[in-house]
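Re-run with default settings, no changes from the original entry. Doing this only to confirm the output is reproducible before filing.
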Amino acid sequence: MNKRLVYIILLSLAFVAMVIGVHRSITEEDVAGNYWIFMIGFVFYMLYHYSKKKDKA
C-alpha cells in the first residue's frame, strides 16, 4: 500500500474521531463519558506522526 495513502487514512481517522467526540460531548453535555473517543483520535494522530517521522529519517 502506498505510504501517502496510509498517512491520509490515519489523519482522516484521527480527524473523524475528534469530530465525533466533540459532537457527542456537545449533544450529551458529558466530556468525561466520551473520553475514549478522544483517545482513539489521539492514538491515530500519534500513529500518523510517528510513521511520518520514521519515514523522514
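The mean pLDDT is 93. The CA atoms of residues 24 and 30 lie 8 Å apart.
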